[in-house]
Amino acid sequence: MPAAETSIWIRACGWPLLAIAILGWPVKLLPPEVAREVVAGGRRACEDAGIPLAGGHSIDAPEPIFGLAVTGVVDRAHLKRNDTATAGCRLYLTKPLGIGVLTTAEKQGKLRAEDVHLARDWMCVLNRPGSRFGKLAGVRAMTDVTGFGLLGHLVEMADGSRLTARLDHAAVPLLPEVLRYVEAGCVPGGTQRNFDSYGARIGAGIDNQGGALSEVQRALLCDPQTSGGLLVAVEPEGEAGFHAACAEFGLALAPVGEFVAQGRYAVEVI
């Protein structure tokens, strides 16, 4: 059960109260027994998050969809925004990229049996660390990486903060075997649409003079994520506390970039 549904309250460092399920089901194509299994998975995800599944709504739909609408409470003092980064903040990503690539490989029938768990396991990881990060003064800005891809969310953070994000593409964590599937052409259609929407805001190359992203860079950095990780901007003085908080969740993160004074591009990929 993907964890994206709970990202809003976790990112805000609040606590959830309850969830409502939303189920769309092709009643003439799939049996109700399968729908019950899907809802049961949603209930287990709620149990993992410590909240009740209080009810829900279902509709007849051409293809199966399922999600949770979560209601929670947040302390305003711990609210984290995506437009409050400062120059010098280092960027951290809590989950590897490539979920869109691997799920596309599965849709195309190209995903090897031994790789089926790779995206699924990460999608099932709740973004619990965000609730802890929200209490850290050194965390200046935070968001979750979803359908716009890493670059799309970086553009949002950079524009909102009136800065430029400098991204080290070699430092960005990737799911195992994802490059194999990129080379096999397993790239979601949303990847190109993402790039078309913000590609002009991206500078690439060591001189950051607008060199083009390689096809592989574009496929990974614009890859739409389902239940993606948290993108966190941490000021240097707060890094010790941030890494201590990461250790509480078994995370050992390395920076993937930093914010610098606003330049020609919203994001520079080096």
From TrEMBL:
Signal peptide: none annotated. It comes from the Bacteria. Keywords: ATP-binding, Kinase, Nucleotide-binding, Selenium, Transferase. GO terms for cellular component: cytoplasm. GO terms for biological process: selenocysteine biosynthetic process. This is Selenophosphate synthetase. Its EC number is 2.7.9.3. Residues 87-269 form the PurM-like C-terminal domain. GO terms for molecular function: ATP binding; selenide, water dikinase activity. InterPro entries: PurM-like_C_dom, PurM-like_C_sf, PurM-like_N, PurM-like_N_sf, SPS/SelD. Residues 15-74 form the PurM-like N-terminal domain. It is an enzyme of class 2 (transferase). PANTHER family: INACTIVE SELENIDE, WATER DIKINASE-LIKE PROTEIN-RELATED, SELENIDE, WATER DIKINASE.
